[in-house]
Amino acid sequence: MENCIFCKIINNEIPSYKVYEDEEVYAFLDISQATPGHTLLIPKTHVTDIFSYDDVLAEKLFSRLPKIARALEAAFPEMEGLNIINNNKELAYQTVFHSHVHLIPRYTKEDDFSMHFGNHMGQQTENEMTEIAEKIAKQVK
């Protein structure tokens, strides 16, 4: 894609701090390090978000996640955890519209990164939960 910053990084038009590359994917440091080692994993094929993936591309990208995660763990033995995040569409905080996965090392509870889901347990009845599950299951192809 012409004005895609990640496509420009893949094409070496914009510099990056490469962590890993093969024929299908590219991993590099996020320029805005949420924590040291914050890495982005992207497909070399331009797709906007997870909704644009086919099974082959999904397998190619997501099968590389453990490799990058293990590399982060080896590089940062003080790492206590790892968040893997994939934001899709603007409402879900996607800001670059070339699909990417964040790998964010966690060092302490005070490392200036947080995710808050809240406790929503019990907001739906058992019947509502069943209806929601069935509605989704009917669409799985």
Automatic annotation (TrEMBL):
Signal sequence coordinates: none
Keywords per UniProt: Methyltransferase, Transferase
GO molecular function, one term: methyltransferase activity
Lineage top rank: taxon: Bacteria
Gene Ontology biological-process entries: methylation
Ranges where the HIT domain occurs: 5-115
Glycoprotein as UniProt keyword: no
Pfam families registered for this protein in UniProt: HIT (PF01230)
The name this protein goes by in its record: HIT family protein
Organism: Enterococcus eurekensis
